[in-house]
Every structure is written in C-alpha cells, then in structure tokens.
Amino acid sequence: MKDLYFQENKWWVSPYNFIDDVRKRFDLAAKVQIHDATLRDGEQTPGVVFRKDDKIKIAQLLDETGIDRIEAGMPAVSDEDFDAIKAISKLGLKAKIFTFARAMAVDIDKAIDCGAHGVVIEIPIGYPKLKFQFGWTWEDVLRKSVDCINYARKQGLYVVYFPYDTTRAREEDLTNLLTKIMEHSPPDSVGIVDTMGCALPEAIQYLVRKAKALTGLPIEIHTHNDFGIGVATELAAVTAGAEVVHSCVNGLGERTGNAALEELIMGLQVLLGLKTHYRLDRIMPLCKAVQEISGVSPARNKPVIGESNYTRESGIGIDLVMKTPLAMFATDPKLTGREGEVVLGKKSGKASVEYTLNKLGITGVADETIAKILKGVKAKGTEKRALLTMDEFKKIAEGVISR
Questions:
Q1: Cβ contact 141:126 at 8 Å
Q2: What pLDDT was estimated at residue 100?
Q3: What pTM was computed for the model?
Q4: Which of 326, 390, 275 is nearest to 8 (CA)?
Q5: Any bridge partners for residue 176, and if so which?
Q6: Which domains does the chain have, with CATH numbers?
Q7: Which pLDDT belongs to residue 1?
Q8: Averaged pLDDT score across all residues of the chain
Q9: Taking residues 218-226, what's their average pLDDT?
Q10: Using one digit for the tens of pLDDT, what is the confidence trace for 15-28?
Q11: Bridge partners (DSSP) listed for residue 100
C-alpha cells in the first residue's frame, strides 16, 4: 500500500485513501480515460476564441500529455472550426478525435467529413430545460435521438449519448429515456452531464450506477464547477464505475468552468492510485500554452498549476521547502516541473531571512543582526501589503549590516 500513498520525490498523500475500509466502497473500472473538451467547451469561456492554428497546437500538446480523447470542436459552428477539426484529424495523433453534435443528421455528416473517430450527441433532459427552454417531453427527446444515434453508428462513429443537464432531470424522465434508447438505438456510451455543476458527489455516484444498470454501457461524466466541486464530483463518479471523465485545460468553460484536466490527472494517479500513462511533466507546458492562447490567467493558488502553490512566506519549515518538500507539500514540486520558492513579507521568520542571505552569498551574519533585518522585512511587507522584491530585501539587509 505504501507505494500508492508515498513515492519518494513524487508524492505523499493520505494513507487512508488506500485502506480496505475505503477501497471496498469503490467500483473502479479496469481503465479510466480522459476526454478533453478544451477546444469546444473551453472555447465557450466568454471572450475566448481559438483560431485554427491555436486548436492544432493545443491538440498536439494534449496528445503529448497522453490524453485519450480530444473533443476538437463543433464543426457546425463555422467553416474555420470545421477546417481545424479536419486538420487535427489528419495529424495522426494517438488520441481519438471527437466532435460535438446536435441530434441532427447534418451534424453527423460534418463529423464524418472531418474524419472524426467519434461524436458526442447532445440533447437536453434536465427538466428546467425541457419545460422552459424547449417545451419538450422526454418522448420528444427520445424521438429526436433515435434516428441520429442509429445513423451515426451506421456510419462507423463511436457515439457518446449526451443527455445534458442530467442532474436536474426528473428521475422518471431519465429512466424512461435511457430504457427506450437501449431498445431502439443503443449508443456506445452514455454521459452523465452536470451542466450546472449542482450535484453532490454522492448524487453523481447514484446516477452513474443507475445509468450503468439501465444501459449496461460505459458511463462518462462531464461536470461544470459552479459549486467548486467539479473535480471531486468526477473522481467520485470514477469510484462508482465511470470509465471516462471529461475535462478542460485550466478549468476553462462557461460560468465557473469545467473540471480541470490537470487536477483530474493528478487525482486519478495520485489520490485514486490508478495506473495511468499521462505525462505529468507535460502538464505545465500544456497549461501555460492554453493560458497564453486563451488570455485567461488561472488564480495564483489554483490547484496544480497556480504560480504560488509551492511558495512559502511563513518562516516555519522554510528549510524543508527545499530540502524535504514532501514534509511541507503533498506533491514534490519537481513532479510537474516546478520548484519550491521562499519569499519575504509580513509573515516571514528568521529562517526565511537566513535562507535568503545565504542565497545571496552572505554568510556568518549574527542572530541579532538577522533579527533586525527581519524587523525591517516585516515592516516593509506590512507597509506595501505585498511581498518584498529581492532588491528591497538587499537594501534592508545592507542597511542593517553596514551599521
């Protein structure tokens, strides 16, 4: 068990993740795949536009990271989107290329013309959508779905049936729809879609098990992050037997975004202990490229990729940040190509000052002098309400030492 919760110079997470009393509650699939929708759902972030070359670059970086499936876009959106998907399909990537489609034959034809391996067929089932937006019943949804699914499968496409806003569907509507779909037009897999990010992990687990029992098909999970639990929800779905998790790089997407790809990768491998082929060392280049192309900067403390995740201002444990990082963090910064960093400000301690002096090649400073430098550092950090620059620290240190 120890090699699951602890790997030297990589991670040290809770051993309780792997005890029998916890693991016996899981129904993990033999293999879990990641379906990334950055090029479609991620581009739905207000103000974000990916041009053809952008999409090709991101697709290549996703493939380098080992992502299993890339949702390259919705070809019906524009000619440029169609051309981008077609170009991506011709790259010869290891990842399977999917398109997004309405339940319409014309969208299926476009997926075929793009050279896609599969198609995600979306149609609403959430009751607020049916009642107020479309004026449909579940029977209408079924009728609109059957011919489209059958047509897509007949054309050789892998079909993900995507009844969106699943988590706000009336249970009888969802049961009826999935039961009848299996009678008339079974797809290859079914998506549980938490479009509004409003379902608890336990509720998602219930829906995964229900959909699996009704269809006998692989179940996929796609969540938004409206309540901040998108990744937790998708990991919970995996423990209930979901075989495919959907994501967007940096958590891009409408409103609060989607489950973040980088967090899912780490969660699957480090927290659930699954054997994956994802390249952790390629996470940062991928995320930085998407940040630059999208113009959307993640929060400084965002999980996995936040710029200050391995930054320590508090003086406690400063020496461990560099010497024994797993005493201070659950993952070693080097796991994703990062480095620990010691910064100076109001909350610094003597160890922080001594560390920074040594970094500047200044040694043999008396404790009394270090204490005076620390006082100056704290005062400056409080005054500017921010961290000190190295020049500001040097000015304080030189002023004290030269007295």
A1: no
A2: 98
A3: 0.94
A4: 326
A5: none
A6: 2-294 (3.20.20.70), 311-401 (no CATH)
A7: 65
A8: 96
A9: 97
A10: 999 999 999 999 99
A11: 120
Tell me which amino acid residue 255 is.
R
Q: In b/e form, how buried is each residue of 126-142, taking b as 16+ CB within 10 angstroms?
A: bbebbeeeeebebeebb
CA angle 313, 318, 319 (to 5 degrees): 160
Residue 64's Cβ-count burial label (10 Å; 0-12, 13-18, 19+) is: middle
User: Any long-range contacts for 328-334 (C-beta under 8 Å, 24+ apart)?
Assistant: 330/11, 330/12, 330/13, 330/270, 331/10, 331/11, 331/266, 331/270, 332/9, 332/10, 332/11, 333/309, 334/9
211-226 average pLDDT score: 98
Q: Residue 222: enclosing H or E segment and its boundaries?
A: strand 219-223
DSSP annotation of 327 = G
Q: Which of 51-55, 261-265, 319-323, 358-362 has the lowest mean pLDDT?
A: 319-323
Q: CA-CA distance, 353 to 369, in Å (whole number)?
A: 10
Residues 6+ apart with CB under 8 A from 192: 166, 167, 204, 207, 208, 211, 219, 220, 221, 222, 237, 242
Q: Supply the pLDDT for residue 42.
A: 98
Task: Give residue 366's identity as a one-letter amino acid code.
Answer: A
In the chain, % of residues over pLDDT 70: 100
The encoded tokens of residue 197 equal: 């990010």
Distance between terminal CA atoms of the chain? 57
Contact 47, 295 (CB under 8 A): yes
Tell me how far apart the alpha carbons of residues 198 and 15 are, in angstroms, rounded to a whole number.
Answer: 30
Asked whether the predicted pLDDT for residue 320 surpasses 90, the reply is no
In angstroms, the CA 155 to CA 270 distance is 39
